[in-house]
Write a structure and sequence with these properties.
The complex is a heterodimer of chains A (389) and B (122).
Chain A lengths: L3 E2 L10 H11 L11 H21 L6 E4 L2 H12 L5 E5 L4 H12 L3 E5 L9 H7 L4 E5 L13 H11 L2 E5 L11 H4 L3 E5 L10 E5 L25 H19 L2 H19 L4 E2 L10 E5 L5 H10 L2 E2 L15 H5 L4 H5 L1 E5 L6 H20 L2 H8 L3
Parallel strand pairs in A: 1-11, 3-4, 3-5, 5-6, 6-7
Antiparallel strand pairs in A: 2-8, 7-8, 9-10, 10-12
Helix pairs in contact in A: 1-8, 2-8, 3-4, 5-6, 9-13, 10-13
Chain B lengths: L3 H8 L12 E6 L6 E9 L2 E10 L2 H13 L5 H5 L3 H6 L9 H15 L8
Antiparallel strand pairs in B: 1-2, 2-3
Helix pairs in contact in B: 1-2, 2-5
The chains are: A alpha/beta (389), B alpha+beta (122).
């Protein structure tokens, strides 16, 4: 069966060059980077090369890159490592759960958290960040690009406000890194989270940018690895893979590929809007990363569309996984003011560096009839059709 | 993870729509996941002569509602009300544990439809 993988925001497949670079480190080039003999020195050299590559992708210095296990660890380490009881944190309602649940955890330890609302496009108003500042504010944490909609936050304006107020600034760049240029100096962030598997490196790889001079308590306790910011023997094969993926991402960003990807995403959107009556793009009009589209398909449950597409060999996502009769609609969409009915009717498609036009074509062939078929038995669509318009 | 029959009912739902001049109709809604099932029935001579459904939700919710419209045909309201989750799941060749709620939702819509219907037990 023909297949189409259009869920790269969930995980992006490891690129062949990445896999090839990793393989020796899973085999004959094994070694602990902390070991004092040749094998250990070689492991360390490979790790430091990877660190330089990741640093270059972010406009950082190599020693400011801390390798982690991925996005959730990076976000948790950033939030839990900086603030304590009595501090105040400013974040947004559209963060990834790694940030939101870290904030909820902090609240239980006596930290106060402000969750800023967003506009219809899902954007935080920088003026609201300024207005939320208090003498006790220690950290601002705002996501760079939404995993649900791909909408980019006005991150440089928020970074400037945080810098002027002299509070730490963290951004979750998990979905943005490798898809749009990310420069820590322009953003003026003190911490930035990056996940390997969202940029075609292996699962279990990631990095946290920690600006020099940022006092961060380590989340993982143990040895002095990663400048004392993250204990544990480094995951060398994954780190080598992340380094190569970062280098490839930097080269990709410098060429015509991002524009080509945006144009392929736009073709997808345009065709769906033409062929599926009532369809709408979440966050349309706002700046977005080039690979993501979040589509409201009124009258059908997004999860039934995902299931029907799965039967056609197409992988997509709703952002809410149903289990045992309970599934929350994506909080990001609810925060954007979507009625529940539309939040439940949303499907996300996300392209990757390896997505072929034929995969998008397959989706565009299958999606309109799938929606039409589901609408035939939809009580929501039948109520809508009954209302004179 | 789903049986061929469940997938078939999802892909090719039976008896979709609304019975014109229905003798009974009911609706059930799962607040936890937003799923909704509506059933409408035409009773003739104390038996279900026609049943149609509308459903929005997961694959299993649509398949269960579709299969239920077949199962109730020819039954008296009392017989229809004796259908339970196990019977509906069995009539689909089985349902994964995580989808049992979908069977319940369809049965809740049936109960709502038959509440007060002519011939239904008090």
């Amino acid at each position: 069966m023909e297949t189409a993988y259009l869920d790269n925001n969930a995980t992006a497949p490891v690129l062949p060059e990445v896999l090839e670079a990793m393989q020796p480190y899973l085999g004959e080039r094994f070694g602990n980077p902390s070991s004092p003999y040749g094998r250990g020195r070689e492991a360390r050299a490979a790790m430091e090369t990877a660190r330089e590559r990741v640093a270059r992708l972010l406009g950082a210095r190599a020693h400011e890159v801390v390798f982690t296990s991925g996005g959730s660890e990076g976000d948790t380490a950033a939030l839990l490592g900086l603030v304590t009881r009595g501090d105040h944190v400013i974040t947004s309602a559209v963060e990834h759960h790694a940030v939101l649940n870290s904030c909820r955890f902090l609240e239980r330890t006596g930290v106060e958290v402000t969750y800023l609302p967003v506009d219809r496009a899902g954007r935080v108003d920088p003026a609201a960040v300024r207005a939320a500042l208090r003498p006790s504010t220690r950290l601002v944490s705002v996501i760079l690009a939404s995993n649900e909609t791909g909408v980019l936050q006005p991150i440089e304006e928020i970074g400037r406000i945080a810098a002027e107020a002299d509070v730490w600034f963290h951004t979750d760049a998990v979905q943005a890194a490798g898809k749009v240029p990310v420069d820590v100096a322009r953003i003026r962030c003190d911490l930035l989270t990056l996940s390997g598997h969202k940029l075609h490196a292996p699962l279990g790889s990631g990095a946290l940018y920690v600006r020099s001079g940022t006092f961060l308590r380590p989340l993982v306790q143990g040895g002095p690895q990663e400048h004392g910011f993250r204990a544990g023997t480094e995951n060398l094969p994954a780190i080598v893979g992340l380094g190569v993926a970062a280098e490839l991402a930097a080269a990709w960003l410098a060429g015509p590929s991002p524009a080509a990807m945006a144009s392929e995403r736009d073709r997808l959107e345009r065709t769906v809007l033409e062929q599926v009556p009532g369809a709408r793009v979440n966050g349309a009009g706002a700046p977005r990363i080039p690979n993501t589209t979040s589509l409201v398909l009124p009258g059908v449950a997004g999860k039934s569309v995902v299931a029907a597409l799965d039967l056609e060999g197409i992988a997509a996502s709703t952002g809410s996984a149903c289990s045992s009769g309970s599934s929350e609609p994506p909080h990001v969409l609810v925060a954007m003011g979507l009625p529940l009915e539309e939040a439940y009717a949303t499907v996300r498609f996300s392209l990757g560096k390896q997505t072929r036009p034929a995969e998008v074509d397959q989706l565009l062939r299958c999606l309109p009839p799938v929606v039409a078929r589901l609408r035939e038995v939809s009580p929501v669509w039948s109520r809508r059709a009954a209302v004179p318009r | 993870m789903y049986t061929t029959l469940v997938l078939d009912h999802f892909r090719n739902p039976r008896n979709g729509g609304v019975v014109p001049d229905a003798s009974a109709s009911g609706r059930a809604w799962n607040e936890g996941c937003g799923d909704e099932v509506q059933l409408s029935l035409r009773l003739e001579g104390g038996r279900v002569a026609e049943a149609r459904f509308l459903a929005q939700g997961c694959l299993a919710s649509i398949a269960c509602a579709s299969r239920l419209t077949e199962l109730v045909r020819g039954l008296s309201p009392g017989e229809a009300l004796r259908l339970d989750r196990a019977a509906l799941a069995a009539a689909l060749g089985g349902l994964p544990p995580a989808s049992q709620h979908a069977a319940q939702l369809a049965l809740d819509a049936l109960r709502a439809a038959l509440a007060g219907a002519p011939g239904a037990p008090p």
